[in-house]
Description:
The protein is built from three helices and four strands. The protein is an alpha+beta fold and 131 residues long. Strands 1-2-4-3 form a four-stranded mixed beta sheet, covered by helices on one side. The model has no long low-confidence stretch (mean pLDDT 92).
Amino acid sequence: PAMRDRIKIFQGSVTYKDERLKNFDAAALVEVIEHLDEERLPAMEKVVFGFAKPTTVILSTPNAEYNVVFEKLQAENFRHDDHRFEWTRKEFADWCNKICSEFNYQVEIYPVGQEEENIGAPSQLAVFKKK
C-alpha cells in the first residue's frame, strides 16, 4: 500500500506543457523522439528541458548508421514505420550539445548494444544532467 501511494501513472505528451511533469528527479525518453515529427522537436525540447526541467534526462534513439547491419532493411527505410527520422551519431551528438547550450545541461553519450567498427551500436543514449 505504501508503494502504491508513491507511484502515480498518468498519460500525457512531451510536446505540451503539463504541470504534472514538473518536479521530478529524472525523466526517461526511451526510443521516443524518433516518433515525433522533426518540426515538433523544438516543442518537446521546451517542455522537457525548459519547462519540466528534471535533474536528469535519459534519452535514447536509434543510430541510423547501424541500419546497414539489418539484412531486411532497405537503405532508405527506417527501422519502424512510425519513425519520422533516425539520426547518425554525429547528428545526435550535435543535437545533444544544442540542448546543453540552450537549457543549461551537460551530457554524456553512450552506445547501446554491440558496437560495430565504423558504424557504432544499434542505439545511442544520452544522459543529461542539470548544471
